[in-house]
Please model this.
Amino acid sequence: MQEIGLDTPLKGLIGARTAARLSEKLELVTVGDLLRYYPRKYDQRGKLTDLAKLVVGERATVWGRVVTVTERDLGYRGPNHGAGRGKGRGRPPVKHITNVVIGDGNRHLTCTFFNQYHWGKMLPPGTDAMFSGKITQFQNKLQMSSPSVAILSDTPDTRSREGSDLLEIIESFPGGVIPVYPLVEGVTQAILQRSVRTVLDLRPVIPDPVPDGLLAQHGLIDLTAALDDIHRPRNHEHREHAQRRLRYDEALSVQLVLARRKAQARNFPAEPCPRAPGGLLDAFDANLPFELTEGQREVGETIARDLATIHPMNRLLQGEVGSGKTVVALRAMLQVIDSGRQAVMLAPTEVLAAQHARSLRDVLGPLGRGGELGASAESTAITLLTGSLGARARKQALLNIASGQAGIVVGTHALLSEGVFFANLGLIVVDEQHRFGVEQRHALRAKHPEGNPPHVLVMTATPIPRTVAMTVFGDLDTSTLHQLPRGRSPIGTTVVPAAEKPAWVERAWQRIREEVAKGHQAYVVCPKIGDDDGDAELSEDGTLVDPDADPGEEMKRPPLSVTQVAAMLRDGPLSDLRVGVLHGRLVPGEKDDVMSAFARGGLDVLVATTVIEVGVDVPNASMMVIMDAERFGMSQLHQLRGRVGRGQAPGICLLVTEAPAGTPGRVRLDAVAATTDGFELAEADLELRREGNVLGTAQAGRSTALRQLSLLRDRETIEQARGDAAALVGDDPDMARWPGLADMVSAVIAEQEQDYLDKG
Ligand code: ADP
Ligand code: MG
Model:
């Protein structure tokens, strides 16, 4: 007999029709595909299903206990009664209805049977049974029409034909732990369970990719056992062991990819850019209007050393909002320029890119006017390149970049994809981007047509939970700025419960007037742009900026919009102030005009979307009011409030919400108001929202490389895997001794690349 392995096609092992269906509907073609299609959850036989979790419109299989049974005889109404129109057409007339109300101890669900006289007798109150069917809603009550039923009973004659599929399910899991697979139209639980069972019974030969030593060290079961137990565990302990093993594999394959990327990147040659005394950097340091914080100095030293080596730097700089990352990056850029090379700074939005260009020019002063008349010899030129430049300006910018005239280039990430050539690129700084995936960084390092890969510094102000950092930035070395510059004012955050205390909202507007009277400025942030657009605003990198608004929470009204709130403020409480509007739908030039007007003090109040979330730095802004605050994520709120309190005046942040006290949305806001520790909030945020949102869409390879793994729950596993991966790669960089591991790595890479190309 031919040996069956993970690559064996399902066709020929299970029925041809089933195989075709699995292939068509779920892209499950091989034994491996099917065995890696893990259950979504497990039911315990006889354990009543929580009816509160049912979703109207979905098919569900529930365990319930019969509460009441009512039967109704409609009598004979003639063969064509009700026929001819509507849904009933062509069906036999309804003569008898049995309503079986089942419960989970809290809630009820009505199962309705038409002309099926036997159910009344077979399901007396108190019976536990499994019901499967589509959940509908009727007069505000959950309902299931004509479900299939399986009664758990010792006497075979009480089993019904209708429920044979269900009975099969129950009986084929003697341990009582029943896998529940994610379904799509046309594929039922029974089909999946039967196919998996057939395949597992054929005892496929599954070589274990992970070295025995590691399995023993971590107390993990072998892969064959894990794949069996994930689908048909004898009990929950076995299921747990299976999950532990599979999670470890996922963590290990991702960490191996990162460890290899890191090792490879480290081995590339790079132009060393040692500090050159008497250059731009020294001149800049001499004119610095403040003293660097200890953290800035230390990180600066580390970076200076990285840049001086013959291998490229690949470093992540994390630091709270306002911790002064820009100065650190700028000093790195100047060191590189002092070595005769160029540096580029990439920002996520045009607003931010323009702001960076502006502030770099300010900070560098005469040092940044290279090429202009009377500029000193050591000075350099700053070129801004964004999508909104006119054709001529763009051409000139490209020329400056290609000729090497521009020492510093500032732009959006689009710069990477366009035909931009650098004369001599030495350093890439990526600002404020935790959605910048491994693949993008990889592409970026390849951005050197000739010569050696540039040094890379990635900066993020979003404090990242450790596991996320390890997974998303695992290929980078990490530095963190823990302190804020001295003299930084604390931000006081207060929740304003608009529904309970409407007067507080009035007070908020009054408070803005007071700030403005003191010569300060304020932001008002809204979740939406206009009245006619969708619920969320797309940020320029294409990810949904919106709010992980609680899915279960009912939306009483659409979110407040910038246009609406700006109009209300201009007509009402702030009619005598200068109110500007900023959002992603303004044309880029307009955006920049508004932003610089605000930065100059030409506007008192800026009503904006989350475009101001990242990096915008207007030290004179002392207050922020966030409308419908419960619609934003915790980390996002933290980011947003970091825009105020950057100057001498203490920052005020008001979180306006209609979410009632005690609701999840309100609890999150209370948490944000209670702490200013971004890392603490990031961990809490990870707990409260879907991980996908935290990682962002750019996190490549997530779909299958991380099926079982949770970045929140599996921290220990990820740390173990990270250590193991480093050791394995250090020992055997090509993993020649571990072909199974090498295959795991290739699979992740193939998927990441595919993912990247798909998004391309
Ligand atoms: P972020 O880390 O959020 O990017 P920035 O680099 O924008 O922070 O810095 C915030 C503000 O703090 C800027 O106005 C910057 O000039 C100022 N700043 C940076 N470092 C210091 C320092 N050591 N002392 C005082 N102010 C500083
Ligand atoms: Mg910044």
User: Anything to note?
Assistant: Confidence is low (pLDDT under 50) at residues 154-161, 534-555, 690-703.
